Amino acid sequence: MKDNIEQLLRAHDVSPTAMRMIVLDYLVDQPSALSLADLETALRPADRITIYRSLRTFEEKGLVHSIDDGSGITKYACCASDCGPFGHHDVHVHFVCRGCQETYCLPRTQVPELGLPQQFLSEEVNLVVKGVCAACNR
Fold it and tell me: Containing H/E element for 22?
């Protein structure tokens, strides 16, 4: 897996430092989006600032996307393979579970096209669905 992470970083023009490889390797294996605090706890004793800088670099290069799920805490998840430094193309719905508080990417559920009035220019779209995930619904 280490080689795959290193290749993924290099493919997105990101220097594969040890910390970047650790952060990305951890994110790739997660079923739900994570906050900076989640990553800091999981990757202890890693420095919070270093993790944050890695996330910002990953977002700029199209490796991860940030999610505003309405909680007031930014979450991060891996991007689709067609994202890059010139834009994120994985505009999909996010699901927040009221039970476990996890935020999930639903990449197969695309955000519908919006018919904006003339002269309105969309710059960002965020669709969050709140409810109960499959695990909590059992």
Answer: helix 18-28
126: confidence class by pLDDT, cuts 50, 70, 90: confident
Domain boundaries, the chain: 2-131
State the DSSP H helix or E strand holding residue 75, giving kind and residue range, or none if neither: strand 75-78
Q: Tokens representing 111?
A: 């955000």
Average pLDDT value for the chain: 91
pLDDT in tens, 29-60: 999 999 999 999 999 999 999 999 999 999 99
**HSE, side-chain direction, 13 A CA sphere, residue 26:** 22
Return the structure tokens found at 85.
Answer: 């430094």
Q: Would you say 96 and 69 are in contact if contact means Cβ atoms under 8 Å apart?
A: yes
Domain 2-131 top-level CATH class: mainly alpha
Tell me whether strands 64-67 and 75-78 are parallel, antiparallel or unpaired: antiparallel
